[in-house]
Amino acid sequence: MESSVNGAVPELIQSFEKAKKELIKEIYAFYAKHASENGVSLAEAQKQLSFAELREFKGSLKEYERLAKNSIGTYDLQVANLSRKARITRLQALEAECDTILQRLYQEQEKLIQDVVKDVYTQEYYRSQFEIERYTGFMYEFSKIPTSAIEQVIMTPVFGADLSTRLWRQDMDTGFKIRQSLNEMFITGQPPQKFADDLQKIIGARDKSGNLTGKKYEAYRVLYSEGAQALSQSQLQAYIDDDMEYYQIIATLDNKTSEICRSLDGCIFSVTKGGDVPQKYVKGDNEYQRRAYDAKSVISGINFPIFHP
After folding, report:
1. InterPro entries annotated for this entry (predicted)?
2. Which end of the chain is more exposed for a tag (fewer CB within 10 A), N or C?
3. Single pTM value for the model
């Protein structure tokens, strides 16, 4: 899994850098078109588009509508609303262009993560079957993974939300922060470099330790957790397909081990019925164990990985 996830990170970073450049380009173009000696005031930004500007903006809606067909979140509703409006301000048009750049970014992120999930699931499913065969000494006929199985993993919520919803939340938060920066720039009369500086903080970079920050880090966390979910679900499916009866949680015990992993280390569960196991396997020394064995099915985060972000 690590190789698949880490292999996707450069593309993840590149897509953010591309979006950042496009956003900065739009802001500088807006500033160059509408600025006076004192910059661009909020009042100036809120002026309505001229007839020619509105016609040009309506022409660009075709690109928006194309993206809206595969929209994340409510972007399709935003586009439909804009297409019906007879009057649009300069600021609304600018925000719409920013939203489109972000929508393109997060659609790219969604496809990238889906590709990683498919790759991880396929590799780990066959790896698990091979390990089971080696351990049991039985020869199994490796079945082809149905597309529906991978699609189900992609749609399965991770920590309460599916992939599309998690990316939509990031899209909305990024858009909100960009709007805040734009409004502050127009209210205070700051030059566009102020927006560029703000955007750099929002998008993030690598810190001195080489770790990602900002939205890049948030996207990496989604990428990693979705990959981890694909890994665990592929293992479970291999157990089911090879008629395994039980599985055991094995945690790496060190100072970084979470409380739930430490608590469930060594616990044995049913592949098909979760905590519904013979009494000799049941443990109830802490809340995590009691909750895990109370669950009469296999549930990620309760009695099967992944347990935490």
Report:
1. Phage_head_morphogenesis_dom (IPR006528)
2. C
3. 0.88
